[in-house]
Amino acid sequence: MKKILMAAASAVLACGIGFAAVGCGTNGDIVVISRESGSGTRGAFMELIGLEDNELVAGADEANSTDVVTSSVEDAEKAIGYISLGSLDTSRVKAVQVDGVDASVANVKNDTYKLSRPFNVAWKKGSTNELRDDFLKYVASEQAQTIISADYIFNVEDAETYTPAELSGTLTIGGSSSVTKLMQALAEGYMELNDGVTITVTQSDSGTGMTDAASGSIDLGMASRALKDSEKEKLESTAIALDGIAVIVNKENPCTNLTVEQLKKIYNGEAKNWSDVDVTFPEK
Amino acid sequence: MAEKVVSGAETLKRRQKADVKELLMKIIFIIAAVAFIAAVAVICIFIFAQAYPAIREIGLFQFLFGTHWWPTIDEPQFGIAPMIVGSCYVTAGALVIGVPIGLLTAAFMAFYCPKGIYKVMKPATNILAGIPSIVYGYFGLRVIVPMIADIGGGSGKSILAASVVLGIMILPTIISVSENALRAVPKNYFEGAVALGATKERAIFRTMFPAAKSGVMTSVILGLGRVIGETMAVVMICGNSAVFPDSIFDGVRTMTANIVLELGYAEGLHRSALIATAAVLFVFILIITLLVSLIRKKAK
């Protein structure tokens, strides 16, 4: 039995080494990092660059969170990834221009930056909740504007000043991890003005947020994308902010600008090397 | 005479009381056993009841051997062949790395280790066992992955990265279970071997290890079980691309990673397909368990 085990182990080892020898160097040098299918960021990004979900280049890494994308790009010189503009940490990675426009809040607001998306909140159709309505009033107010416009783009024109309605109770909010950070700040701001209210914000993802809101297990669901038609049947929604998606590369990467067309080629596998999108790394 | 009868009745009474206690405990034990069996049964029923409609709709052959996992497009395809292959590669890789290191460490701790070092090594293995898998994942992402990217190119998130991290993860299991098994072998086996002229090494690897075979095998199986079911660490470092890998420097997606990545988003058939993935994993583990008991029976 030991011999069988030994044989099996060495066969596996040999296979591994064989594969390693054969497989090296067949791919190009762009390390494409994406998010998992279903992620709000991925859904928005793929739609914005004009790709179907299954057209993603085979072999692209699918990271399961924003931080994994950032870490991967920070550590790999020839990597490219995309994250929510609000989560961009320019001390770790570099954001490239898209179609010659900087990835900045100002440029999403004036609609020149191509990669932007809405942050939606949704609730069960026909349900009534005084506290929720009051909170939504706050989210569209002048006070909320200062919170939202710190990182994102405020979506309401002529916002009015919010006055507390002296309500009490609890409000549960859940959904997209991209929206959670903003929602927590808004919830804190609201609770400061309304002593009797407790708001709990839980993080999952856009899909779960919509499902939970439709089933009524939470009062408000968050989604970092437009609602699907199947979701619109059960939910009412409003956009509380706009967000941009930043395309990030390693700080050593000389690339400063990519067009949407080039991004599309990178993410569908037509461009496999940085030289295919006119980026030359300095010789070492 | 009368007194004796009374005392006899009393002892009988006492015994009856004891019987009641015994019966009570018996019932409690049965309840515990039933609760355990019920938990297993409910999980099995849940998985297979949810998986069956999906497998019927997709087709068993299409599901197991389909090479495309495109769950979110208009005409979705659910093929988990890349994930099955991914799970197998990662598991094999982790065992190749973890088993030799683990078994040799166990031999060291059981036969060679000076007391002072043992006092450090034993708690160290326990600490290794207590580290949450998400921490292993993050360690892999920031330390192992960049190292592998330097060697093999690409992002570094690969079969090799997952194998190294999982190989480390299963060390405590393999070390402590095999060490106990080696210690449980009677000392005179070792002494006998040495008396017959064997060197210390020969005695350990030719006499003690075969004598502790069952425990050593158990440690490997426990490690195997942990690797194939590991989720949070793997999902951060294996790349998660649902395609067949060309080399050990390529990313893969394991079955567990597939479930945890998409279950949150999935609706309808997609969700059922993920549960069906869990069912396939379940069957895998069942087959492994059966195979092992078969091997052990034959070995005996």
Note the main attributes of this structure:
heterodimer; A: 284 residues; alpha/beta; D-Maltodextrin-Binding Protein, domain 2; Dipeptide-binding Protein, domain 3; 2 domains; ten-stranded mixed β-sheet; two-stranded parallel ribbon; 10 helices; 12 strands; 38% helix; 23% strand; B: 300 residues; mainly alpha; MetI-like fold; two-stranded antiparallel sheet; 13 helices; 2 strands; 1% strand; flat
How are the SSEs placed, and which strands pair?
The complex is a heterodimer of chains A (284) and B (300).
Chain A: H1 2-23, E1 31-35, H2 40-49, E2 61-63, H3 66-75, E3 79-84, E4 94-95, E5 97-98, H4 105-109, E6 116-124, H5 130-139, H6 142-151, E7 153-154, E8 169-175, H7 177-193, E9 197-203, H8 206-215, E10 220-223, H9 229-232, E11 235-249, E12 257-258, H10 260-268
Parallel strand pairs in A: 1-2, 1-3, 5-12, 8-9, 8-10
Antiparallel strand pairs in A: 3-11, 4-11, 6-10, 6-11, 7-11
Helix pairs in contact in A: 6-7
Chain B: H1 2-58, H2 60-65, E1 69-70, E2 77-78, H3 81-112, H4 115-130, H5 133-152, H6 159-169, H7 171-184, H8 187-195, H9 200-211, H10 213-229, H11 232-237, H12 255-262, H13 268-299
Antiparallel strand pairs in B: 1-2
Give the structural class of chain B: mainly alpha
Query: Would you state the CATH class of the largest domain in chain A?
Result: Alpha Beta
Helix content of chain A: 25-40%
Spans where pLDDT lies below 50 across 5 or more residues of chain A: 18-26
Report the CATH architecture of the largest domain in chain A: Roll
Order of helices and strands of chain B, N to C? Answer: HHEEHHHHHHHHHHH
Task: Please tell me the overall pLDDT of chain B.
Answer: 89
CATH superfamily of the largest domain in chain A: Dipeptide-binding Protein, Domain 3
Question: What is the CATH superfamily label of the largest domain in chain B?
Answer: MetI-like
Termini Cα gap of chain B: 61 Å
The count of β-strands of chain A is 12
